[in-house]
Amino acid sequence: MPLITVILPTRDRGGVLPRAVASVLAQTEPDWELLIIDNNRKEAPVAAGQFPGGGVADPRLQVLPAPQAKNAAAARNAGLATARGKWIAYLDDDDAYRPEKLRCQLALAERAASPLVLCGAEFHLRGRTRRAQCGTPEWRGEDLLLRARWNTSLLFHRHPGELRFDETLDAGEDGEFAHRFLAAAGASAVPVAALPLVDVYQDAAAALRTNLRGEVDSAGLYRALAERWPLSWVPPQPSVECLGYAILSAGASRRRQLALRGQIDQLQQRLNDRIVIERAKGILVQRLGISEDEAYKRLRVLSRRQRRQIRDIAQSLLDAQSLLLPDSNGQLLHPAESESLLPDRPLPPA
């Protein structure tokens, strides 16, 4: 079993993918497996033998076809489902590790007994370079939200078990995953290997956003977290940035409220449907002297035959029963008047 699994999703970037793979092959820590998640749509499928090594595929390298992965989160989840390593690292197909990356982060994680560590990076922009996350040995508190860089290539963590990236997010999914991971592990601080251990290459279009990347990443991360959990932003001081986060908080709170309201409505409808079905089962049990299981089976069979929802079949039975219930004078009751006379059976445990 490998000690470290490196997950490398790629989509139609055959021109830069060999550089990323070569940087993993050059690691000074040799105990790893590399999972290339092939999400190519236009280019030919990735072949393990196409990378450096004299045409011979390194046995630690494995290509996993994932043509249906809808985004980076889904591709990484495909890798996590196959990963065998005790530790997990990621690499974007247009980035590259420096040779000491895995060794340094593994040593830091073991020394600090931390389930997740970060590292610094050097961003290669148009005509210049810029280093990030190279000046602090640790993030904690609000800095985990506002200052930490959660680029996936900088992450290094223990195998997350069943925890996965949120595939509904197209931005901020790496930071959102990391925060859920930290919460599950009960960790309040994240050590940082404060060295540029990853080279991040950006094209011209991405470079236009570089100066605001930290703010964009933080805003996307905060939005993702606030829509999932009840967070509120209390501005520590009046500023445009603080006002922006306050607006994000209010909007996320509203979307979370609407989502919860929709879930409540769905649960209420399911409960109402179950009450109707249980009452219909009670009628069949009383009338026919059969078991509850047999009563439910009959409702289900009729539902299939008539291609109707089982709840609608049950409601039809209740309506028919109400027409056959006489009052104390022997007169048939109106359905609304007879509802209280229907069998009121307790719901069995779910």
Describe the overall structure.
By secondary structure, this protein is α/β, with parallel strands linked by helices. It has two domains: 4-206, Spore Coat Polysaccharide Biosynthesis Protein SpsA, Chain A, CATH 3.90.550.10; 258-341, Winged helix-like DNA-binding domain superfamily/Winged helix DNA-binding domain (Arc Repressor Mutant, subunit A, Orthogonal Bundle). The chain contains eleven helices and ten strands. Helix 7 runs parallel beside helix 8 (240-288) and helix 9 packs across helix 10. The chain is elongated, with a radius of gyration of 29 Å. It starts with a strand and ends in a 12-residue tail after the last helix.
Rg is 29 Å
Range of helix content: 40-55%
* Shape category: elongated
Low-confidence stretches: 204-216, 334-350
Distance between the termini: 41 Å
By CATH reckoning, the class of the largest domain would read: Alpha Beta
What is the domain total for the residues? Answer: 2
* Number of helical stretches of at least 4 residues: 11
Largest sheet: 10 strands, mixed
Q: Helix- and strand-based class?
A: alpha/beta
* Percent strand: 15-25%
**CATH architecture field of the largest domain:** Alpha-Beta Complex
Can you give the mean pLDDT? Answer: 83
Could you state the order of secondary-structure elements as H and E? EHEEHEEHEEEHEHEHHHHHH
Name of the CATH homologous superfamily of the largest domain: Spore Coat Polysaccharide Biosynthesis Protein SpsA, Chain A
**Tally of DSSP β-strands:** 10
Question: What would the CATH topology of the largest domain be?
Answer: Spore Coat Polysaccharide Biosynthesis Protein SpsA, Chain A
